[in-house]
Amino acid sequence: MAIEIDASLHRELVPLSWLIGSWEGVGVVGYPGTPERQFGQRVDFTVPGDVPYLLYNAHAWTLDEDGQIDDTLSVETGIWQLVRDRQDFDSGPGYMVPTAETPYTTAEAVEGLRNDKGDFELDVSIVHPHGIMELYAGRVNGPRIDLSTDVVARTRTAKEYSASTRMYGLVGGELMWAWDMAARGNELTSHASARLKKIT
């Protein structure tokens, strides 16, 4: 599958450009102590302006025995971006405006962000309902992404949840992903996976 890259896309997003768009499909979710269920999902990766990060939104719902939508399972929202030191040409913290021009205007400049293994390192933050936020460290190399939690933050009322890993890959034009998590006293254990087709 050929990946078309919008010429106006921020150059730092080129390694992640294969994610951009809306994806829908089905998967299977389960965990020790809970029943295995089929679920549907929509994932949106969007670019909110001329920025060096992707906005991630995911909505999952359970499916009944006939494959019809049963109920909302969960939602997630987050930010995906390449790892590099933040400088005067970046906005933030808060609403602070940039005070310099970005040097990452060419593919050659962005290529300089690769690590010794040839990967681009990733920072990914994902917020869940019910008081859980994950900060992932990961890598992207071609159409494959591997993530592992660096930090899991929980409110005092959240369920016990300590770590997770996620893998995303583009296979035959479809987005496939798998999620392992450590929760409720369990070590990292398979939790969910899905196969999504691009719809926009």
What are its keywords?
single chain; 200 residues; mainly beta; 10-stranded antiparallel β-barrel; 10 strands; 2% helix; globular
Estimated helix fraction: under 10%
Mean residue pLDDT: 93
- Helices and strands, in order, run as EEEEHEEEEEE
Which outline best applies? globular
Identify the strand order in the major beta sheet.
1-2-3-4-5-6-7-8-9-10
Task: Describe what is shown at a glance.
It contains one helix and ten strands; from the N terminus they run E-E-E-E-H-E-E-E-E-E-E. The chain has one helix spanning 107-111; strands at 21-31, 34-46, 53-63, 69-82, 120-128, 132-140, 144-154, 161-171, 174-183, 189-198. The mean pLDDT is 93.
Topology diagram in text:
Elements: E1 21-31, E2 34-46, E3 53-63, E4 69-82, H1 107-111, E5 120-128, E6 132-140, E7 144-154, E8 161-171, E9 174-183, E10 189-198
Antiparallel strand pairs: 1-2, 1-10, 2-3, 3-4, 4-5, 5-6, 6-7, 7-8, 8-9, 9-10
What does this structure look like?
This protein has 200 residues and is an all-beta fold. It contains one helix and ten strands; from the N terminus they run E-E-E-E-H-E-E-E-E-E-E. The longest helix has 5 residues. It is globular and about 55 Å long. The two termini are 15 Å apart. The model has no long low-confidence stretch (mean pLDDT 93).
